[in-house]
Design a protein that fits this description.
The chain is α/β, with parallel strands linked by helices. About 15% of the residues lie in helices and about 40% in strands. It is globular. This is VOC family protein.
């Protein structure tokens, strides 16, 4: 079997399920594939995401609610890059992902694309949105 590389998102505030459902709502060809939850007496908060798999535009991702508190979180040096098909799609994603988050680069023409924007969403995950 060939190797497979999957992006893995670790949430520390019990946000994994909310984030996953939010992302799935934004993209076509997106779905929650599987969710395993912490049960009674397990290390994580009961009912929170022990491990989940979801797809966005055919690409598989995994996420968890970490049972252990870490001194690190998401950083923009690792981001999800989305090639958009239209100005409307770019604007919709930029607005939705930026709500409650932080704009790193506002939507504009930066010379390397027609239109580009970079945001951290409200969960801290970084997104680069591009219209070639």
């Amino acid at each position: 079997m060939p190797q497979k590389i999957t992006t893995f998102l670790m949430f520390q505030n019990g946000d994994a399920e909310e984030a996953m459902n939010f992302y799935v709502s934004l993209f076509d060809d997106a779905e929650v594939v599987a969710v395993e939850r912490y049960g009674p007496g397990e290390q994580g908060a009961q009912g929170s995401v022990k491990h989940a798999t979801f797809r966005l535009a055919g690409q598989e991702y995994m996420c968890i609610d970490s049972a252990v508190r870490h001194e690190f979180g998401f950083t923009p040096s690792m981001s999800l890059y989305v090639g958009c098909d239209s100005e409307q799609e770019l604007q919709r994603l930029y607005d939705a992902l930026g709500e409650g988050g932080q704009a790193l680069m506002p939507l504009d023409s930066y010379g390397f694309s027609t239109r580009f924007g970079w945001v951290n969403d409200r969960f801290g995950v970084s997104w680069q949105l591009n219209l070639p």
